[in-house]
Amino acid sequence: MQALLVILLLLNLGIFALNVWGPSDEPAPLPLTEATIPTLNLVKDIEPAVYSAASGGSPSSCYTIGPYLSQRVADEVMTKVGNYGLAVSLRSLRTLETLNYLVYIPPLPSYAEAEAVVQDMKRFEVKEQTVIEAGPYQ
Asked: Residues near 117 by Cβ (< 8 Å), separated by ≥ 6?
């Protein structure tokens, strides 16, 4: 039993010595990047881009972005565009476009008078109009 213990101890010491002082057949470490790929420039190493009409070869342009359904969204877009160094101004425009309005005209005495009102509405480019002949909104 003692001989077996001594043999195992010698084998362990031999394997330890082989790992520490033996030949190293490790492969070469893999490069982290390829040589053909350029290195990245950190943002702090680059000058901030500032727009100037004089710096470009083309004349300055003015763009309109929108319309937006709320003032808050317009302000957010204005801030984001301003962060690029562009001059931004906000202007409000009233449009004549309305969406999805139902206009109820009280009943007229005759169908002919209702048709006359429909023809008058067509003159003002109202695209959808209906004379309701039956039901609660007659």
From this structure: 105, 108
Q: Which residues have C-beta within 8 Å of that of residue 2, sequence separation ≥ 6?
A: none
pLDDT of residue 10: 96
pLDDT tens for residues 12-62? Answer: 999 999 888 877 777 777 777 788 888 777 777 666 666 555 555 555 567
Helix (H, G, I), strand (E, B) or coil at 40: coil
What the block records as the tokens of 79 is: 């801030």
Structure tokens at 25: 């057949």
Instruction: Quote the CA–CA distance of 96 and 23 in Å, as a whole number.
Output: 86
Angle at 85 between CA 80 and CA 86, to 5 degrees: 80
Find the helix or strand (DSSP H, E) in which 52 lies. none
**For the chain, which residues make up each domain, given as ranges?**
64-95, 98-132
d(CA 7, CA 18): 16
> pTM value?
0.30
